Amino acid sequence: MGRTTLFCASTLFGAMTLAAACDEGLFGTGRRVLLVSNNAAIPEITPALDDAPGFAGIRDRFDEVVSWNAIIAPLHPSDWKARSVETPMLGRLLSARLGEPDELVVESITVPPSRTLAGLLKDIPITVYSDGLMSYGPTRFPLPREIAGRITRLLHLDLVPGLAPLLLSECGVPPVIVSRSALTRVIEQIKGDTPTTRAADSGRESPHAAGSGHKAEHADDLDQDAAPPAGSGQETRCADGRGREAVILGQCLSSLDILTTAEEAGLHEAMLRGLAARGHRKVVFKPHPAAGRRHARELRPIAEELGVELLIAPGTMPAEVCFAVHRPQLVVGCFSTALVTARRFFGIPAATVGGDLVLERLSPYENGSRIPATVIDASLPRLSVDGSLVEPPPVDLNALVRAVGYCMRSAAHPDLREAAAAFIKDNIKDGGAARYFKHRRLSSLALLPTPMPDPASGREPKEESPPGQGRDPEPSVQPIQGAEPTQGTPGPGSAKTPVSRLRRFLSR
């Protein structure tokens, strides 16, 4: 029997990356099985990637497509882990079901379902692929030696030239680039198989497109929060690619507890107002596949107020396909990887909004989104509500990413400490890099810059926190107007009452 390679993917863009790698010959010949995992919060009502428009363009790369959700139903792929006592039995059953695979190809190796599959299918080599900016960050969680020792390579897109991936580097895993040309060829195939493109190419709405809900719809027609089933005739499509001036990339930041729902809506509003101020009158909103229709509905009254025609791209369509179809003049988002692919693969200008807020809110510090947010914020211009684009302060991006990566997982990368300390010393106060670090994390790692002595007095000045990253100012208790000052509350003109140690601790 020939060689069998088992690929695991949860997004259409991830499957497109695998197709590009196959086209480059990175997996040789043999039988290829694609294991599709639907990681949506409610997968029963959310189409999987093999049901998405455009998947047919890459289906021929795989001999068989299997649903991981169907295999472990009714359990959820992001939650289920095999108990240690059941692992040998389940591993044999899974291996027999999938044709005795000789190699496992997964994404996000530290979390299920990839971590679960790696634990079940033992004694076979593992290839990890990364289709986003997270490849430039450290491995989120330490891996057991039984799994780390089997990882042979890391496939990644060359999104930031000159920046080497930090992911899995502590395990000695060599990175391998999936070329830009291979991915763009796959995007063109997906574009040619997308119903929206066929309608645009014909210059009119085809009967098939009309019956399948593939014509362009305004945000006025979005009345449901949940995404409808594929082919239900209720999906929002942008059929005509002509005249689309700008694209807004949505992300599910509130679902990830990075921002509140109101704050995320505020970011989208700021993006739309900034584009309108720059003169864009047609804007395509590309929602995150897991975000539903709430964000588009919230943008509708703002677009009407600004006189902007708001069109909604299908959530299942990768943003890169949207770029290939619509060729916008500007792409705006928060820290989506698609901002980089727009500029790198299509030559489309990109801008970011809300990076400072996200960098402040990401918790814990080793959050996997920190490196993508850092790369985007440090390399792309920032769009303001008045339409102005402000370039970020100049910074050595490679040194910045390495320093942030060390602070995220210092135990895994002790070799980066010296370079990280030098970068922080040179840039934390005057270089504009303070927003990428937390005072408490630098203090715990003994990386806070040493204050210089005062030449006049010979004393060392009091250490200051990095701008925007230090302790919160001590809360000042204001007396109620018309009330007598109470004990501990300073009255007008009185000295400020010292704040207790407990209050200082809680205020941090």
Assign the structural class, choosing from mainly alpha, mainly beta, alpha/beta, alpha+beta, or little secondary structure. Answer: alpha/beta
- Count of the domains: 3
Radius of gyration: 25 Å
Poorly predicted segments: 195-243, 460-497
CATH class of the largest domain: Alpha Beta
Explain what you see:
This protein has 508 residues and is an alpha/beta fold. The chain has three domains: 4-185, Rossmann fold (3-Layer(aba) Sandwich), CATH 3.40.50; 210-390, Rossmann fold (3-Layer(aba) Sandwich); 397-444, no CATH class. The chain has helices at residues 12-23, 68-72, 87-97, 114-120, 145-148, 180-193, 195-202, 207-211, 261-277, 294-306, 319-326, 337-346, 355-361, 370-379, 397-408, 417-427, 439-444, 501-507; strands at residues 4-9, 31-36, 64-67, 103-106, 126-130, 151-157, 175-178, 246-249, 282-286, 309-312, 330-333, 350-352, 382-383, 389-390. The strands form three sheets. A seven-stranded parallel β-sheet has the order 3-2-1-4-5-6-7, with helices on both faces. Helix 11 runs parallel beside helix 12 and helix 15 (397-408) packs across helix 16 (417-427). The longest helix has 17 residues, at 261-277. It is globular. The model is unreliable at 195-243 and 460-497 (pLDDT under 50).
